[in-house]
Design goal:
This protein is of the alpha/beta class. The protein folds into 3 domains: 37-128, Beta Barrel (Elongation Factor Tu (Ef-tu), domain 3), CATH 2.40.30.10; 144-268, 3-Layer(aba) Sandwich (Rossmann fold); 282-360, Ubiquitin-like (UB roll) (Roll). Helix content is 22%, strand content 32%. The chain has 9 helices and 17 strands. It has helices at 2-8, 11-17, 22-29, 111-118, 154-166, 188-197, 222-227, 243-255, 299-305, and strands at residues 38-49, 52-59, 71-78, 81-88, 100-105, 125-128, 144-150, 172-179, 201-207, 236-242, 262-268, 282-285, 290-293, 323-333, 339-340, 345-348, 352-360. The strands form 3 sheets. Strands 4-3-6-1-2-5 form a 6-stranded antiparallel sheet. Strands 12, 13, 14, 15, 16 and 17 form a 6-stranded mixed sheet that branches. A 5-stranded parallel sheet has the order 9-8-7-10-11, sandwiched between helices. A hairpin with a 2-residue loop joins strand 1 and strand 2 (52-59). The protein is globular and about 60 Å long. The two termini are 42 Å apart.
Length: 362
């Protein structure tokens, strides 16, 4: 099948099928047939909590697999329109049945996540990208590893831990998870099972809005690491979750001179301060011939407020769905704080805030 797929994706075949691709015609025979496009059939949808679900998927032959911690662009057809969002893989890479899973928390304003949680049915065909992302474990996992997650940021971390279990990892792993409450916690039973099956795994759960078991309470602090006997200076650490958690962990590691041990991934970008001093100037959408006073919100949010409907996926700066050319001006990245002012550069408008006068090819 690999040889056949390579032949179908070749230039001679492309010239014969132009202006369409070979996948356009294969789709008429069977939606799962493809030379290049990744598709998957939904095997089942498992409810994790009242607002979170896991979708088990069986991909077609173009799928190249994933590294634990990565994400996929996930597209579903709803009322004749394809909507794409970015979800993290939550399953073990060592699965033998050819399936993998993504786990998603349904947000009140999240159209795709709500559809996935409440309406997605087995045997539905979904459209995927290849797995993407750099938030992954090294090839040689050290003997001392700390994984920190908050809320739905637990998803890629679960993929890491499950893979470590299935690959026979024998090093020390500490899994520190923050949730609002027991009812809000994803994978509760799985966390219990993981703690029982990995002798060197310590699972600590902290509930930030209600008393929980053990001595640790409240939000992340250096005292939590001290209580667990962890020294950030010699502990490779991965943290995934909301901006507040990541900022606390990052600042702690910076203060201790251990920032080189920290790997981070946001599940929700930091909120934008609309009173920021750089909320000046005019934001121009050149193609639409619309000018608006810069409100200090992201370019995507200001475009939507102006009545435009640009494409977007994750709204977190992870995928490239919203990437658009900036014709002129400077923008600030809401996660890194970096300001860039190159002419004719491509920016991700979901995480870019205008600084002064900016014009966008939109």
């Amino acid at each position: 099948m690999g040889i056949i797929r390579k032949a179908l994706a070749s230039r001679p075949v492309a010239s014969l099928t132009s202006p369409h691709t070979i996948d356009h015609y294969l789709d008429q025979i069977d939606p799962m047939l493809a030379a290049e496009n990744v598709r998957a059939r939904v095997v089942k949808v498992v409810q994790e909590t009242g607002d979170a679900s896991t979708v088990v998927l069986r991909p077609n032959g173009t799928w190249k697999g994933f590294t634990p911690g990565q994400h996929v662009q996930f597209g579903v057809e709803v009322n004749g329109k394809r909507r794409v969002r970015v979800f993290s893989v939550s399953s073990s890479r060592a699965a033998k049945d050819g399936t993998f899973s993504v786990s998603v928390k349904a947000h009140p304003d999240g159209y795709v996540s709500q559809f996935l949680h409440r309406e997605l049915q087995p045997r539905t065909i979904v459209h995927l990208s290849q797995a993407e992302g750099e938030f992954v474990l090294p090839r040689e996992v050290p003997d001392n590893l700390l994984l920190i997650s908050g809320g739905s940021g637990i998803t890629p971390v679960m993929s890491m831990v499950r893979t470590l279990r299935d690959s026979g990892h024998r090093g020390k792993v500490t899994f520190l998870h923050y949730a609002r409450s027991v009812g809000d916690e994803m994978f509760s039973a799985d966390l219990d099972e993981l703690a029982a099956s990995l002798p060197q795994l310590t699972v600590t759960r902290i509930y930030t809005r209600q008393p929980g078991p053990g001595d640790l309470q409240g939000r992340f602090s250096i005292d939590h690491l001290k209580h667990l006997g962890l020294d950030p200076a010699d502990t490779l650490t991965y943290v995934c979750g909301p901006a507040g958690l990541i900022a606390s962990v990052r600042d702690t590691y910076d203060e201790l001179g251990a920032s080189d041990q920290l790997r981070m991934e946001y599940f929700k970008v930091p909120s934008v301060d609309l009173d920021a001093a750089d909320a000046t100037g005019t934001l121009s959408f050149d193609d639409a011939r619309i000018d608006t006073d810069n409100s200090g919100a992201t370019v995507l949010e200001q475009a939507e407020a102006a009545g435009l409907k640009p494409d977007f996926g994750c709204r977190m700066g992870v995928c490239n769905t919203c990437a658009i050319k900036k014709n002129s001006g400077a923008v600030r990245h809401v996660v890194t704080g970096e300001i860039t002012a190159n002419t004719d550069e491509t920016i991700k408008i979901c995480v870019s805030v205008p600084v002064g006068d900016v014009s966008i090819a939109l």
